[in-house]
């Protein structure tokens, strides 16, 4: 078989026989009995084999540099508050509320509000993205999503508005006690005592 006869059967990307890579042409010109002898990699050399190696241990210079960088604090020292500023948490002068020694750690608690009273909460289910609001929101207690049946903690909580001592939340609405974690833990309607 001649190269001109084979060039008609070449793939389109190869074009004419002159433009094809030599290894491809060599494979195309093999006869049927030579095809069994051809080994992959023989045209390009032996195939590389991956030998398992462990990573080299870090040098002393690298580890000391890492230690120095971790010890280095990139935060500026906090500037002192104005002389008239009073911390709104402990009502003492000399520090901001964010630096107050009486402040709770940020990660403590499952909800933004950590008080004892009932408050107004905004919820969003992470699974179905359903949103709802409730006037029966409590610290570290969630409510079950009606669709997904997973317990969801509020992402926002604020005090109930009580003009003239009256709760403005609609008292006629039925509170689904089977979805409220507080009701389930108490064993009765959570608004009865609070």
TrEMBL record:
Where in this protein does the record put region Disordered?
A: 40-65
Identify the InterPro entries for this entry: ZAR1/RTP1-5-like_Znf-3CxxC (IPR027377), ZCCHC24_C (IPR057809), ZCCHC24_Znf-3CxxC (IPR033446), Zn_knuckle_CX2CX3GHX4C (IPR025829), Znf_CCHC_sf (IPR036875)
Q: Where is the 3CxxC-type domain?
A: 118-186
- Note the Pfam families from the entry: ZCCHC24_C, zf-CCHC_2, Zn_ribbon_3CxxC_2
Q: Which UniProt keywords apply?
A: Metal-binding, Zinc, Zinc-finger
Q: Which domain of life is it from?
A: Eukaryota
A molecular function (GO) term: zinc ion binding
Listed name of the protein: 3CxxC-type domain-containing protein
Q: Which species does the entry assign this protein to?
A: Bombyx mori (Silk moth)
